[in-house]
Amino acid sequence: MAKDIGNRQPQLRQLIAQKAARMMAEEGISDYAFAKKKAGRQLGIVEMDCLPTNAEIEEEIKLYAPFLDRQIQIIQPKVIVMLGRHSMNYIFKKAGIEDKLQPISKMHGELFEGNFGYGPVSLLPLYHPAAAIYNQHLLDTLKEDFKLLKDLS
Q: What stretch of H or E contains 121?
């Protein structure tokens, strides 16, 4: 059995890296270790030897980015809420306002305006909900920030 896993390890690492990258891009998860473990669990892979490196996940994020860009161009949202710093950094750069980037601790809950070529887009960076798992003090902040969502519609 262990030999079989060893033969499949590169494919398993890639599957985990792809899933972790998608979660980091779409869900705003910023903790690589958390994303790897969550992706592995969702795929039913329990062998920790199969976890990809952060560099492998970064590569998968780069490969996934054009799909996210295309979704934005098709949907043309008027509001984009970013959960976590990875998604915030990516979206701010795409919206042409990377000069406004600061740590998410300074930007969460503040509304910004960017442009994706089809018109102005309201951008709202928030902490990722998983941040409250690691820092219980953020729970009240998250609740307050999420209240802002109802005012955006």
A: strand 120-126
